[in-house]
Amino acid sequence: MTNFFTSHLQSRLTDVFYPRYPKVVRALQRLTLHGAVLTIGFFFLFPVVWMILTALKTDKDVFRIPPTLLPRDNQRVEVNGELLPIYKVPVNGESGESRQMALVNISEGNGTFVDPDDPAETITVRMRKTEPVLEISFKWHNYSDAMNRSSRPGMQITFWTYFKNTAVVASLAIIGTLLSNAPVAYGFARLHWPGRDLVFLLVLSTIMLPYQVTMIPLYLFFTETLKWGDTILPLVVPSFFANAFDIFLLRQFFRSIPEDLMDAARIDGAGEFRIFLQVVLPLSKPVLAAVTIFTFLWAWNDFLGPLLYLNNPENFTMALGLQDFKGQRSIAWNQLMAATTVFTIPIIIIFFFAQRTFIEGIKLTGSKG
After folding, report:
1. How far apart are CA 234 and CA 219, in angstroms?
2. Which residues, listed in sequence order, are joined to residue 101 by a DSSP beta bridge?
3. Residue 12: phi, psi to the nearest 5?
4. Scanning 37, 236, 308, 334, which has its CA 20 to 30 A from the CA of 186?
5. Are 278 and 343 in contact (CB under 8 A)?
6. Residue range 35-65, pLDDT digits in tens
7. What DSSP line would sit under 135-190, residue for residue?
């Protein structure tokens, strides 16, 4: 809908105003395009911004009504060596006058306040009649508190444990995927053997098989037959057996590499394995980066796999640890958002530094059938 509106507006501007005001038309076109991109980007980025800012709020600020975007906390003042929150306290109900006073304690809905300039002066007022004096305050310690907090009382298991487990699973999944899929894809792309195309079609047909169909047989196989229950092996070992999607992606890229390079290597006496290692792989960095990113995202965000196979909290991944933390009776939402932010940082960093190679790998894949 946005593309239709933009193209229609551009065509109208071009037909009517461009002959007389070409510079104005071009400026309006750029303004319209940038406005559409910024508007769409806002809807995607706003939840992320809200999550990051919520992670910097206090417990009370998270549930403040009406909600605020920036973190706010009570302004505090030092009285007798102690930092106390400041409130606007009514001093004359009839005139509506109020004073900024420090809260000493609360008892049965009544607050005891002192004048910061004269600590000897105290008054008691119902808390519902007071109003806190707020200031913008970022609670950066929420990140360290969240990552060092144990989600299970009595167990020394923190989010750093979940982070480490997730990193191990993702790293092994990437290694297994690259080692298993690249040689198979090369065999389908460059080697000629009877029934190659038929076998490739059979491999591709497995993409249409939903995971829910194989979930129970795989679970019984890994837990009952191989006795791999409550370990990361069911999450990692399947990566060392090629999958149809990555095979297809790599095969299409391998077929785009000129055959003349292969023939030149064969004339020099190189075998297929050496050609694969020294010719094909160095030229396939974009698609290998794309496969690496896809695999990392899948392994890093996987929730169903760890939920099926992992029972001991010491083996939980980050996705399962966040859900376990959320399932506790008392939820610290600011710390939960802080842990979630840390969970998303590796994804953002990897995509930021590898986006050019990733896009190039996707763009060039399939350029030759």
Report:
1. 8
2. 87
3. -65, -45
4. 236
5. no
6. 888 999 888 889 899 999 999 998 888 888 8
7. EE---THHHHHHHT-BSSTTS--BHHHHHHHHHHHHHHHHHHHHHHHHHHHHHHHH
The Cα 289–Cα 299 span in angstroms is: 15
Phi-psi sector, 259: left (phi>0), alpha (psi -120 to 50), beta = alpha
- Tell me if 73 sits within 8 A of 134, measured CB to CB: yes
3-state helix, strand, coil in the chain (%, to 5): 65, 15, 25
Q: Domain 72-136: give its CATH architecture.
A: Roll (2.30)
Q: Is the CATH code 1.10.3720.10 the one for domain 147-364?
A: yes
Delimit the domains of the chain by residue range: 2-54, 72-136, 147-364
**pTM, to two decimals:** 0.79
pLDDT digits (tens, 9 = 90+) for 83-111: 888 888 887 655 567 888 888 888 888 88
81: left (phi over 0), alpha (psi -120 to 50) or beta: left
The structure tokens 């699973």 sit at 169
Q: Sign of torsion, CA 120 124 125 130?
A: positive
Tell me the C-alpha distance between 276 and 273, whole Å.
5
The pair of structure tokens assigned to 159 is 């989010």
- Alpha helix stretches (DSSP H) within 311-332: 318-326
Element (H, E) at 361: helix 333-364
